[in-house]
């Protein structure tokens, strides 16, 4: 009898082992890689959890959720979890404005003050300037006073007046600095023109026609199925996210969605189901600055070469959440990643890792240094996002070094591509004619050399 029991037990264990091996062997190499990335990040408390969806050529290569929707209650991340998507909202706002352009309700060249009272001190700022971050208006999230306002409930005009009291960062279309104020204003323009709330217009034009049933304007009070909690990373462990009243992110960052709904949206947008072809091209095509300089930010989307691959994308960050949506048109590849933690590993971290698991990374071609660059040494000063900076540039044997005044960190630029231009990842830095120019995809900074 004992031998029979042992034999039966052995057969059962062998069967279970074979099933487990079969389950593992059925996983793709992409899924195994994603599992390891996410599990290590959850286990080390760098994230609470997340969701990822990878879609290519009409096929889902990966759709999976990891970690926890609620750490306190030990609730696993649901399959169709809803996250706050932050600035991924901006592509919806841009598309809504372009819908109104299509129907001739407004023009991209309209002065935005035709719709919103705002003292520009004599400058003409167009709706197009708002869409592509070239207005020079300061971003409210970079104004210290805003953060007292951010937890309160007030009419939205109070934020307009707060921004109005602050100085311009640059003259319109002279540079490009990422700007939440601009997209907040665009939401007010949509409401003025349509006589509907921003949420109602998006629901009517996009969410209902595309059957995006899990996408809505985020709420501080409503109970929403599968809506996950947000957290902040700290070296001492994950913390609950701070409070933010959703009056303020608004059309710059107040939508909530899922990976599935965002795939529906992205496929519809990029296959002509949202805008006409001319208007779609307007949305994804970056404009030039006044001096003819090309940039990478279009309208609610960036459009650039990511190590040799054309990428149309946008990320998002809001208290407790980091997101990333990217589309590679030449490969017909979509990658969507949503994380319910702000910290070093957001949606872009995982999306970037998955990108290079699927595509070949083409490094920028270096050329020989054609100068000792002593003539570009000096201090360069100007506006960047959230600050005015002074940057020390020094020539060294194999490149140049950059050091922000008052900061101990020294960066070395080594990938020289010619014409006084270096690559730092995908960022392009050109130093000539007493200017330091940096295109970092979401911004285009111009710093002037001090005399």
Automatic annotation (TrEMBL):
Keywords: Hydrolase. The keyword Hydrolase applies. Coiled coil: none annotated. InterPro entries: AmpC-like (IPR050491), Beta-lactam-related (IPR001466), Beta-lactam/transpept-like (IPR012338), Beta-lactam_class-A_AS (IPR023650). Gene3D superfamilies: DD-peptidase/beta-lactamase superfamily. Residues 35-344 form the Beta-lactamase-related domain. Transmembrane segments: none annotated. GO terms for molecular function: hydrolase activity. This is Class A beta-lactamase-related serine hydrolase.
């Amino acid at each position: 009898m004992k031998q029979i029991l042992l034999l039966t037990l052995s057969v059962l264990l062998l069967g279970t082992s074979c099933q487990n091996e079969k389950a593992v062997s059925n996983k793709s190499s992409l899924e195994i890689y994603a599992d390891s990335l996410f599990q290590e990040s959850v286990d080390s408390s760098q994230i609470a959890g997340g969701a990822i969806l990878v879609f290519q050529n009409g096929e889902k290569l990966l759709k999976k959720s990891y970690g926890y929707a609620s750490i306190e209650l030990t609730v696993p991340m649901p399959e169709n979890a809803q996250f706050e998507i932050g600035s991924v909202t901006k592509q919806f706002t841009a598309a809504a404005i372009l819908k109104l352009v299509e129907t001739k309700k407004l023009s991209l060249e309209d002065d935005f003050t035709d719709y919103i009272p705002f003292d520009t001190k004599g400058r003409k700022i167009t709706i197009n300037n708002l869409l592509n971050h070239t207005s020079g208006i300061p971003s409210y999230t970079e104004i210290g006073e805003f953060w007292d306002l951010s937890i309160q409930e007030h009419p939205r005009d109070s934020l307009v007046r707060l921004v109005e009291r602050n100085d311009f960062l640059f003259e319109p279309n002279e540079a490009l600095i990422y700007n939440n104020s601009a997209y907040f204003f665009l939401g007010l323009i949509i409401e003025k023109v349509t006589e509907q709330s921003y949420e109602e217009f998006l629901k009517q034009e996009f969410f209902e026609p595309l059957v995006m049933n899990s996408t809505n304007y985020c709420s501080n009070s409503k109970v929403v199925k599968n809506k996950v909690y947000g957290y902040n990373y700290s070296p001492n462990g994950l913390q609950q996210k701070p409070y933010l009243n959703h009056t303020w992110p608004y059309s710059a960052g107040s939508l909530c969605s899922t990976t599935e709904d965002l795939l529906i949206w992205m496929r519809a947008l990029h296959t002509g189901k949202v805008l006409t072809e001319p208007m779609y091209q307007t949305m994804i095509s970056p404009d030039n600055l006044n001096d003819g300089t090309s940039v990478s930010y279009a309208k609610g989307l960036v459009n650039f070469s990511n190590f040799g691959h054309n990428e149309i994308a946008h990320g998002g960050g809001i208290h407790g959440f980091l997101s990333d949506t990217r589309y590679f048109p030449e490969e017909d590849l979509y990658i969507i990643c949503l994380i319910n933690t702000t910290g070093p590993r957001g949606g872009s971290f995982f999306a970037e890792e998955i990108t290079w698991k699927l595509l070949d990374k083409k490094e920028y071609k270096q050329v020989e240094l054609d100068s000792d660059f002593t003539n570009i040494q000096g201090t360069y000063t100007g506006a960047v996002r959230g600050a005015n900076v002074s940057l020390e540039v020094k020539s060294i044997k194999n490149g140049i070094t950059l050091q922000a005044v008052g900061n101990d960190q020294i960066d070395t630029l080594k990938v020289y591509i010619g014409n006084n231009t270096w690559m730092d990842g995908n960022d392009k830095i050109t130093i000539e004619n007493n200017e330091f120019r940096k295109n970092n995809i979401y911004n285009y900074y111009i710093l002037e050399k001090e005399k």
